[in-house]
Amino acid sequence: MSSLQPKLQTNKLFLYTARKV
Question: What is the C-alpha separation between 15 and 1, in angstroms, rounded?
Fold first, then answer.
């Protein structure tokens, strides 16, 4: 599950950036 954490963080960041744009 440790490998899933970084992927989720990246997804969250991507969503955050997409929402900001």
Answer: 21
Return d(Cα 17, Cα 8) in angstroms, integer: 14
* 10/5 Cα distance (integer angstroms): 9
This model's pTM is above 0.85: no
Token readout for 21 is 């744009």
HSE (CB half, 13 Å, CA atoms) of 16? 6
Q: DSSP alpha helices (H): ranges in 1-21?
A: 4-20
Reading the chain (21 residues) residue by residue, the pLDDT tens digits are 567 777 888 999 999 998 887
